Amino acid sequence: MKKKAWSVLLLTICMAVIVSACGGAKGNNTSKGNDTASGGEKVTVKLMHLWPEGVSAGQNKIVNQIIKEYQDENPNVTIKQEVLDNEQYKNKLKVLSASNELPDVGVTWAAGFMQPYVEGNLFTPLDDLLNGELKDKFISRYH
Which of 106, 121, 134, 143 is most open to solvent, judged by the fewest CB atoms within 10 Å of its CB? Predict the structure, then answer.
Protein backbone atom coordinates (compact mmCIF):
# COMPACT_ATOMS: atom_id res chain seq x y z
CA MET A 1 0.00 0.00 0.00
CA LYS A 2 2.88 2.39 0.79
CA LYS A 3 4.32 1.79 -2.67
CA LYS A 4 1.01 2.78 -4.28
CA ALA A 5 0.82 5.94 -2.13
CA TRP A 6 4.34 6.95 -3.18
CA SER A 7 3.49 6.28 -6.82
CA VAL A 8 0.42 8.48 -6.60
CA LEU A 9 2.47 11.20 -4.87
CA LEU A 10 5.15 11.12 -7.57
CA LEU A 11 2.56 11.15 -10.32
CA THR A 12 0.80 14.09 -8.73
CA ILE A 13 4.06 16.00 -8.62
CA CYS A 14 4.77 15.06 -12.25
CA MET A 15 1.36 16.24 -13.35
CA ALA A 16 1.76 19.44 -11.33
CA VAL A 17 4.96 20.10 -13.19
CA ILE A 18 3.24 19.38 -16.50
CA VAL A 19 0.46 21.78 -15.61
CA SER A 20 2.95 24.47 -14.66
CA ALA A 21 5.01 23.78 -17.78
CA CYS A 22 1.97 24.11 -20.00
CA GLY A 23 0.86 27.25 -18.28
CA GLY A 24 3.57 29.32 -19.92
CA ALA A 25 6.85 27.63 -19.14
CA LYS A 26 10.09 28.71 -20.69
CA GLY A 27 11.57 25.20 -20.59
CA ASN A 28 14.26 24.22 -23.05
CA ASN A 29 12.48 21.07 -24.18
CA THR A 30 8.92 22.30 -24.59
CA SER A 31 7.95 22.54 -28.25
CA LYS A 32 5.40 25.13 -29.23
CA GLY A 33 3.50 25.37 -32.47
CA ASN A 34 0.55 27.19 -33.92
CA ASP A 35 -2.64 27.99 -32.05
CA THR A 36 -5.27 25.25 -32.15
CA ALA A 37 -9.01 25.48 -32.54
CA SER A 38 -9.32 25.06 -28.78
CA GLY A 39 -7.65 28.44 -28.37
CA GLY A 40 -4.42 27.15 -26.83
CA GLU A 41 -0.93 27.03 -28.17
CA LYS A 42 0.27 23.57 -29.19
CA VAL A 43 2.67 22.27 -26.57
CA THR A 44 4.72 19.08 -26.42
CA VAL A 45 5.91 18.00 -23.00
CA LYS A 46 8.68 15.42 -22.68
CA LEU A 47 8.13 13.04 -19.76
CA MET A 48 10.73 10.51 -18.67
CA HIS A 49 9.81 7.91 -16.05
CA LEU A 50 10.94 4.57 -14.74
CA TRP A 51 7.80 2.44 -14.76
CA PRO A 52 8.03 0.08 -17.75
CA GLU A 53 4.83 -1.79 -18.50
CA GLY A 54 6.31 -5.26 -17.95
CA VAL A 55 8.12 -4.48 -14.68
CA SER A 56 5.87 -1.85 -13.09
CA ALA A 57 2.52 -2.52 -14.71
CA GLY A 58 0.46 -0.79 -12.00
CA GLN A 59 2.44 2.45 -12.05
CA ASN A 60 2.66 2.39 -15.85
CA LYS A 61 -1.12 2.03 -16.11
CA ILE A 62 -1.66 4.95 -13.70
CA VAL A 63 0.78 7.18 -15.62
CA ASN A 64 -0.87 6.38 -18.95
CA GLN A 65 -4.34 6.98 -17.52
CA ILE A 66 -3.34 10.37 -16.10
CA ILE A 67 -1.66 11.35 -19.37
CA LYS A 68 -4.72 10.31 -21.40
CA GLU A 69 -7.10 12.24 -19.13
CA TYR A 70 -4.88 15.30 -19.20
CA GLN A 71 -4.50 15.25 -22.99
CA ASP A 72 -8.27 14.72 -23.41
CA GLU A 73 -8.91 17.82 -21.26
CA ASN A 74 -6.11 19.78 -22.96
CA PRO A 75 -6.13 18.85 -26.66
CA ASN A 76 -3.37 21.34 -27.39
CA VAL A 77 -0.95 19.38 -25.18
CA THR A 78 0.95 16.28 -26.30
CA ILE A 79 2.90 14.36 -23.69
CA LYS A 80 5.71 12.24 -25.12
CA GLN A 81 6.93 9.53 -22.79
CA GLU A 82 10.27 7.85 -22.52
CA VAL A 83 10.12 4.84 -20.22
CA LEU A 84 13.30 3.30 -18.85
CA ASP A 85 14.24 0.88 -16.11
CA ASN A 86 16.02 2.21 -13.00
CA GLU A 87 19.63 1.90 -14.15
CA GLN A 88 18.92 3.10 -17.69
CA TYR A 89 17.04 6.05 -16.21
CA LYS A 90 19.89 7.02 -13.89
CA ASN A 91 22.46 6.79 -16.68
CA LYS A 92 20.33 8.70 -19.19
CA LEU A 93 19.60 11.42 -16.62
CA LYS A 94 23.35 11.96 -16.19
CA VAL A 95 23.94 12.15 -19.93
CA LEU A 96 20.99 14.47 -20.55
CA SER A 97 22.01 16.77 -17.71
CA ALA A 98 25.54 17.04 -19.08
CA SER A 99 24.15 18.14 -22.45
CA ASN A 100 21.42 20.34 -20.90
CA GLU A 101 18.72 18.25 -22.59
CA LEU A 102 16.73 17.10 -19.56
CA PRO A 103 13.06 16.23 -20.12
CA ASP A 104 10.40 18.75 -19.10
CA VAL A 105 9.10 16.33 -16.47
CA GLY A 106 10.77 13.40 -14.79
CA VAL A 107 10.86 11.31 -11.68
CA THR A 108 13.82 11.04 -9.39
CA TRP A 109 14.93 9.79 -6.02
CA ALA A 110 15.23 12.00 -2.97
CA ALA A 111 18.21 13.05 -0.88
CA GLY A 112 21.67 12.06 -2.12
CA PHE A 113 20.73 11.20 -5.68
CA MET A 114 19.16 14.62 -6.31
CA GLN A 115 21.89 16.68 -4.64
CA PRO A 116 24.18 17.25 -7.66
CA TYR A 117 21.20 18.15 -9.85
CA VAL A 118 19.86 20.59 -7.27
CA GLU A 119 23.28 22.17 -6.74
CA GLY A 120 23.66 22.51 -10.52
CA ASN A 121 20.25 24.23 -10.77
CA LEU A 122 19.13 21.53 -13.22
CA PHE A 123 15.73 20.92 -11.61
CA THR A 124 12.97 23.49 -11.35
CA PRO A 125 11.95 24.10 -7.73
CA LEU A 126 8.33 23.25 -6.98
CA ASP A 127 8.16 25.21 -3.73
CA ASP A 128 5.63 27.73 -5.08
CA LEU A 129 3.33 24.96 -6.30
CA LEU A 130 3.70 22.85 -3.17
CA ASN A 131 3.09 25.82 -0.89
CA GLY A 132 0.33 27.19 -3.13
CA GLU A 133 -2.45 25.38 -4.92
CA LEU A 134 -1.11 21.89 -4.08
CA LYS A 135 -0.48 22.59 -0.40
CA ASP A 136 -3.29 20.43 0.98
CA LYS A 137 -3.30 17.81 -1.79
CA PHE A 138 -0.71 15.45 -0.29
CA ILE A 139 -1.07 12.87 2.43
CA SER A 140 1.71 12.82 4.99
CA ARG A 141 3.93 9.78 4.63
CA TYR A 142 3.53 9.22 8.36
CA HIS A 143 -0.21 8.45 8.10
Answer: 143
